[in-house]
Amino acid sequence: MVDSTQSLLGTRKLLVVTGKGGVGKTTIAAAIGLAAASSGRRTIVVEVGEESRLPTLFETAAPEPGAELVLQERLSAVSIDPDRAIMEWLQALGGRISGRVLASSGTFQYFAAAAPGAKELVSMMKIWRLTREGSRRRRDGYDLVVLDAPATGHALGLLGSPKTFGAIARVGPIAGQTEQVSALLEDPARSAYLAVALASEMAVTEALELQDGLQRQLGRSLSAVIVNGLLPKRFTSAEIVQIAAAGSGARVPAVARAAAHAATSVHERARFQQNQLARLRRRDFDVVGVPFAWSTELDLTAVREIATRLARRL
Predict the structure, then answer these.
(1) Domain of 118: which CATH number?
(2) Are 155 and 211 a contacting pair, CB within 8 Å?
(3) d(CA 38, CA 173)
(4) How far is Cα 311 from Cα 200, in angstroms, rounded to an integer?
(5) CA separation (Å) from 184 to 170, 192, 224, 297?
(6) 10-residue block means of pLDDT along the chain (314 residues)?
(7) What is the domain count for the chain?
(8) Half-sphere exposure of residue 41, counting CA atoms within 13 Å on the CB side?
(9) Structure pTM?
(10) Would you tell me how many other CB atoms lie within 10 Å of the CB of residue 258?
(11) Which domain holds residue 61?
């Protein structure tokens, strides 16, 4: 059963955006953040990794590592580096030990190697705290956290880390926090999961695998699959036959042949994309299409247009 998309932007505390690498996850996460902020919700978009791409999109200076950055009214961003997150966590446990000393210590290296998934768990704890507290400088916190998660396999590892560690640490502060993080991830009223895909065989297959992984690990389903880069279907089959005929023959100008070839190629590509959408719909997914952008690079204006489209569907 696919989770309902009703009022995703208006009721949830956490939206997790993931999918195959290179399908435009960060663009979609930014667009969702813009849509939520425009509706009046205080929103933060969380990237996981050392590099933060949202400051460039919003043409603002990158903040200090781990610092929250205001992008516009009611919209902020932060990047969580898992290596830095676990170091901060261990430093908090170790009192006044400096981060430099801790990072170079054998104990830290041993712990990081001996506890696979610890970095993911600490990252999820930071995300969970954002859904509850927001920034240290904000008493009112955030209404919505949009997680620009890693690609599918790593995202499932990130989302599964609280349950994995919860089975090991049954008592103490870690156990209490992992239980609360797991409760957030498993609660359809507070969290939702969105896959981003291109209308390609590999990307759609990965979305289907994501659905299976969510059900297996969390008992959850995708609320929607957002399919990026859809080409318009401009011609009927009869029209494309006429176009192909008009572009063939020895006396046809080269420009006419090139135009006919281009039209035929785009038509075939669009038809292939529709076949991939049908694969998703056969699994009863709510499929949200985003048109192909005829530009070399998406700017903020283009992302705002995507946000407007998503706001009508989410």
Answers:
(1) 3.40.50.300
(2) no
(3) 37
(4) 24
(5) 18, 10, 19, 36
(6) 65 95 94 96 92 88 87 94 78 56 51 65 90 60 94 93 70 72 94 96 96 96 95 85 82 84 88 94 94 83 94 90
(7) 1
(8) 24
(9) 0.86
(10) 11
(11) 8-232+285-313
